[in-house]
Amino acid sequence: MNRIFLFLFLVLCTDLISSTALGDIDSPRKQMANGVSAEDVKCKNELQLMIRSNGDAICAKLSSVEKWINSQRAEIVDSVLRDSENDTGDSLDEVQIDTDISPEKILVQSARDTYVLGATMAFTGESKPNTSLEVELEDSDGNKVYTDILEIDDSGLVHFEIKTDNSFTQGTYFLILKQGNDSEIVPVQIGESTGEIAAVIEKFHFDYDSKASIEIFGPISENISLTVFDSRDDVRSEDTVLLDKTGHAEYLLDLSGYKKGNYYLVLNHASEETIEEFTVGLSIGTAPIEIQVDDNYYKIGETVILIGESSDNTQILIELVDPTGEVIDKIEYYTDNDGKFIYPLELSLGKQSGFWTVKVSNGERISEITFEVKGEEKILTVQLDKEEPYLQGEFVTISGTGIDLESQAIIQIMSAEKSFELFPEVTKDGAFSEVWQIPENLAPGIYTVLVNDGIDDVTTTFQVIYKTES
């Protein structure tokens, strides 16, 4: 009997070793079934181990980590980036595959299926005349690399080009075209196919008891696992989709019985995972919209964090407008159960420096906010080491960035009665940090710190209070 148990133990160990040491890492689900704890699950290189809210492990792509965190459905376990295999839950809804989901109202095709890096992509076709056509090009991770809004004339003909510059990499890209409720997806390839999986949902907001058309791309003739989670991380439906010989499938998801809220579509193949979001049954809001951004100044390529509040569980439309008045991007989004929302806006979509505008509307109301975007020039900043008042005789650390190296910078500490000057040492990156001791007999009050580099200046303030004897 002992020999039998020893034999089974050796078989189990051999299976675990062969699936990790030899590079063929099992899925998180299989590892956990073999007794591995969620925190000890192994992921492939450049994938991130995360723990879902139900305690199960997943291995997520770098591009999906932020989506998992923002949805509050998973947390990072360690700092090593890796890739993903998801687990499933238990309630199963009936879904179906349809090869002809809807009549095509946008007919656009690429001049070539595959391009070399640096080439210009060319697209031609036709769409609804005298109507704006929204154009987005996304990479396989769902990142937008190009956006535009074309004004289609009465001929309905479509023709445009996209130059693949240094911001592009080899891989699969998806051209997404939208006119009202109509949409079209055109996959294009730069270089050799990487075999990554991707999904594009026809739109973001769906009505109750409707059907969602989903385009799925990945390795040719492979099975893709499809799971839909609700906002509480419960499984709403799951299925397996077989891709055709071109690595494509069109899938029709029946939303009958889905409650109001946001949902997450998760695709899995081997240890790769991708996630997309959509909503069901959200109404148009009527309450005012309050919005703000996380800073007043940005550089091209930075991310603007948009934060807002309005009616709960409602549809909103976010528009990013460049200094020329051109709408660079349109994003369909939603408010949560508390009426709040947060969304990252990528400034890499535009090339203009100047004053940008974000507009948010909910059908009845609209709000907008303006911020400044600067190009390659540095932004002069200043900050102190704390926000609380300083005592007489205490040290103050004054630091910042963006000083122009061509001129002598000066730091002035001023009140109505007193003035002090410092000449900071500046790094080659324009950063500085100076420590100044408050005089023991300096009068309590509010003092202004002014940093001037001969081109620009910036200020902040601090308070000095009496030093109490201990």
TrEMBL record:
Q: Which domain of life is it from?
A: Archaea
Q: Which named protein is this?
A: Uncharacterized protein
Q: Which organism is it from?
A: Nitrosopumilus piranensis
